[in-house]
Amino acid sequence: MTIHVEGLVAIAVFYLLILFVGIWAAWKNKNSGEGTDRSETIMVGGRDIGLFVGGFTMTATWVGGGYINGTAEYVYLPDFGLAWAQAPFGYALSLVVGGLFFAKPMRSRGYVTMLDPFQHLYGKRMGGLLFIPALMGEIFWSAAILSALGATLSVIVDINIKMSVVISALIAIFYTLVGGLYSVAYTDVVQLFCIFVGLWISVPFALTNPAVSDITVTAVKQVYQSPWRGSINKSDTWIWIDNFCLLMLGGIPWQVYFQRVLSASSATYAQVLSFLAAFGCLVMAVPSVLIGAIGASTDWNQTTYGPVPPREKDQADMILPIVLQHLCPPFVSFFGLGAVSAAVMSSADSSILSASSMFARNIYQLAFRQSASDREIVWVMRITIFVFGGLATVMALVTGTVYGLWYLSSDLVYVIIFPQLLSVLFVKGTNTYGSVAAYLFGMVLRIGGGEPYLQLPPFIYYPGWTTEKRMHHMTGEMEEVVIQKFPFKTVSMLASFLGNAVFSYLAKYLFESGKISHKYDFLDAVVSKHSGEIMDKTTLVARGNNIGLSEMTSVKPRLSVTLAAAFTRRDTLPTETVEEEEESSPDFSQHDEE
């Protein structure tokens, strides 16, 4: 095995740069967020992230190693092409929709994590259930990023994959431990700058390589493979729409996104940052699209890679580092590859922080230890950052199905959490019974459709299903898999949304009309909300306009004050913003009236 010294030096320089920026950000902002809890400062950065850093870190919500590598891969693959490279437009529209409809209500109510509104309205047990798909998504995403990083580094410098993954994970975990969201945000600025400069320096050299044909010709004509522009077969139209909706709407209910929204200095800023990030997503995708097109336009027999194209070696997912390695001069190649590697490594930090934030606040503090001190919450966050980071690293090293797990978990985020987020923010009158029903509907309908990547067979065969012979990505053996042509993911999401509303109103009617005895309201979701006898279980603590929820515990003086601010931090907001938001709030304002 040959060690490429120049590549190793380039990667080391970029890694040290990321590490330095992460530690510097932690030191620079050590006194920021004074007047708020230290744990909240780690989670949402003291809510003072400005426009410049905020724009970069919001863009980095999705623009990282997986984004740029995946876009190049789909443009390069003969059976897909640009028509199927949906991530740039899908995630850009996701940020636009998030900015238009979700950023303002979430930020103006002063939440700390994405799960806060669920626990506020549906209770701590439902919040715990919704934490499961959210955690799976973040952990599997981090593992997929680290797995891709190991493969990328093996292309660049031929070093041991396991060593590179462990070192990368340790660096990301270390500066996240030290600085929380501030370190994540400032390293995002460096990350995007590295990607932009590194790729744009490389593109002109790759385009002018003698082995590369004119990409404007190969876009519409077959030269070395089918045109990279791609096409959508009529029979695949619903699959394309289903996948696009998954990216556009399923990209919203992630803690990595709301982490940035909730760290903005105002609700309006949160919206502006979302729109800026949407533009950034499209801009950052351009060099990846060009590199994918270059890969599809290359006569690999004229390169140092060899006569067999990457797609035939099952290396299409590494087309971006392969193009930089074999079609650019060494000094350009190593600069570009080092920048990309550092960017991939930096992408894992926000997911690890997101998972630990949700656990420390929504599971540990609000569900189990409501009287926990701020210092205790900080230590829980630090421990879980290390645990979740270690878990993602282990998965990246030992499991070959990490991408399949991430596909399935991201689908579950789409079909379970997105409709619940719609309901909790915009539908008046939903309750825990509807939320449980929606959870079950979404999970059963999605898992019932199967997951070929995980060899998970379907037990629900949707209209238009068919079978195909495919090579398994791990064993290399041909196998017959069921392909669902029906847009069952989006249908599962809609069924989950409707199920929430229907079962919520049904439960409300049955209990309030007396058709079911009040004593059977075991979730305390309908009757106990209006019952004076059991206010010790569900206590709404009013302080002017502030509403807090204390569940399943006796109210102590310190606790009532803490929980009054637990979900709604009005101290971070202008008064008029709060009043405006509460007027438009469908369900939270009704508690005021009651």
Could you walk me through the main structural features you see in this protein, from its secondary elements to its overall organization?
By secondary structure, this protein is mainly alpha-helical. The chain has one domain (about 5-500): Sodium/glucose cotransporter (Up-down Bundle). The chain has helices at about 5-30, 40-45, 50-60, 65-75, 85-110, 115-120, 125-155, 160-180, 180-205, 215-220, 235-250, 255-265, 265-295, 320-325, 330-370, 375-400, 400-425, 430-450, 490-510, 555-565, 575-585, 590-594, and strands at about 465-470, 480-485, 540-545, 545-550. It has a two-stranded antiparallel sheet. A two-stranded antiparallel ribbon has the order 3-4. Helix 7 (about 125-155) packs across helix 16 and helix 17 runs antiparallel to helix 18. The longest helix is centred in the middle third of the chain and has 39 residues, at about 330-370. It starts with a helix and ends with a helix. The relative contact order is 0.15. The model is unreliable at about 530-570, about 580-585 and about 590-594 (pLDDT under 50).
